[in-house]
Amino acid sequence: MRFDEAYSGKVFIMARNDFENAQAVIYGMPMDWTVSFRPGSRFGPGRIREASIGLEEYSPYMDKHLEEVNYFDAGDIPLPFGNAERSINAIEEYVATLAEHGKFPLGLGGEHLVTWPVIKALHKKYPNMALIHIDAHADLREEYEGEALSHSTPVRKIAGLIGSENVYSFGIRSGMREEFAFAKESGMHMAKYHVVDPLREILPELSGRKVYVTIDIDVLDPAFAPGTGTAEAGGISSSELLEAIKLIADADMEVIGADLVEVAPAYDHSEQTAIAASKFVREMLLGWVK
């Protein structure tokens, strides 16, 4: 697949078949090679696209219509099954190409490790970038059962690359004691349990900055998103996440890219997780792509 090749399968609603003039590019990262509990998030990108067909094109939250944003759906990056290292390299190469062409990368996961190569690619263009991380899990492990490449390690890797002080995590309610100790001692910003209020407080610190946003669907309580591989009770509601997306849209900063990860459709026969995810993607397109 070429980076600008038209996708022949189902695309996100109202995606244009025009890479050259696109402001944003939606792309899938169908990888779940390192998950520690339930696999299946490699099927997330496809189900999010399919669920998007049921969306209204107009958002009352943003007061915008999808016709106001020109975006291209490139389909899924072809990743070598079971090979985490080669998959990571392929993602980094792909996103670097999007960055060279000035496109806003909007990735669909896939497990959360896929965020790591995206940040590596964007950091070369934006060395002073910051990360907003919305998730149930800290993802600050150095390894999981001896494996440095794990969906429990991406934020720790990112902190080492961009500096812990440039990492802002919200909604965290699960992790090892050592992960919470690292967050406290390293200078990163971690808000436990909640998203909206701590996000509102911290956004002025990010004024004028270039920021990447990663959202793990399991930040939601399983009542709102059962279709994920590592569900954690006690999360936020879909309404709260929509409010957080709007806060970021209204903030005085530049969102340079984003992803939504860990949708695992097999565990949600009602499809409410994929339906919610597709709505979040719509709001991200309308609010964050300038």
Instruction: Return the structural class.
Output: alpha/beta
How can the largest sheet be summarized?
8 strands, parallel
The radius of gyration over CA amounts to: 17 Å
**Terminus-to-terminus distance:** 27 Å
Say how many strands there are.
Answer: 10
Q: In order across it, which strands form the biggest sheet?
A: 4-1-5-10-9-6-7-8
CATH class call: Alpha Beta
Order of helices and strands: EHEEEHEHEHEHEHEHEH
Which percent bin holds the helix content?
25-40%
Number of alpha- plus pi-helical segments: 8
Percent of residues in beta strands? 15-25%
Say which CATH homologous superfamily is assigned. Answer: Ureohydrolase domain
CATH level 3 topology: Arginase, Chain A
**Count of the domains:** 1
The low-confidence runs, each spanning 5 or more residues with pLDDT under 50, are none
Mean pLDDT: 96
Family: Belongs to the arginase family. Agmatinase subfamily.
Enzyme class: hydrolase
GO molecular function, one term: agmatinase activity
Pfam family, one: Arginase
Structure, explained:
The model has no long low-confidence stretch (mean pLDDT 96). The protein is built from eight helices and ten strands. It has an eight-stranded parallel sheet, sandwiched between helices. A two-stranded antiparallel ribbon has the order 2-3. The protein is globular and about 45 Å long. It has helices spanning 44-52, 84-100, 115-125, 154-162, 177-186, 196-202, 238-250, 272-288; strands at residues 24-29, 58-59, 64-65, 71-76, 104-109, 130-134, 167-172, 189-192, 210-216, 254-261.
